[in-house]
Structure prediction request, 260 residues.
Amino acid sequence: MGRDEFPESVKRRVADRVGLHCSNPECQRITSGPAVDPARSISVGVAAHITAAAPGGPRYRPDLSPTLRASAENAIWLCQTCSVLIDRDEVRFSESVLREWRTRAEDFAAKAIGAGARYRRIAAGEIRQELSLGALLAIKALEEEFGCHVESNVHVPAGDGWVWFDGAAVRGEDLVAIDIRENHGRGVPYFQIEHMIELCRTLKFDRFQGCVLFLVVVSDGPLEADAAVEQRVKAIAGTSSVEAYVRMFRLNDLRARFGM
Ligand SMILES: [Zn+2]
Prediction:
């Protein structure tokens, strides 16, 4: 059985779509440049197969037609080093990882060229992807306090939608909603805390009578600033009819307590 190689036109298009840069986000090297001979250029770029060109190769998919296998849809532009790298470890460099690389590289090139770039995908560094270490440790501390598992990253149904909380547990008929803020020395976003209280005050949760709110602050800022932050959060909590508790943690104390 032969290899389903890319036609030259596909290779060129794939390279152009990422501005001739390697699509590995940790590499991004430019893959072409001048040779000493002014009439020549050098390329270290490769149109690599996302799923292998022939059976037995990395990430090979028997379900693809030869046409699809040799199409731009199955190609990613890489430097020579990265093209070898991805074939050495097909678990780490899975099909989905490589597709993610290609999307990011194309987004990057679209932004760089400034064409058609009114919208772009939000980048990994621009969003909070999961709970930080401080938030995870705060959840552990609350698990000890509550004596039960605290679910993290939860969507709780309410009316026609849902509300997202850092963590949640249940007390009697009530939802225990956990809101975790981190103080790195510049205070915490009080408006978000006010908003959270307002949500818990006004929303009807499908499965719960009411809402008990735990407002948690994990601090690694100057110790002397913590008291003022705590006072302010308590003041906000105190002005509402919601049953709310404030917990202040020092990140270092939590790390020592849980050995992390
Ligand atoms: Zn590379």
In short: The chain has a mean pLDDT of 91. Residues 95-113 form the longest helix (19 residues). The radius of gyration is 26 Å.
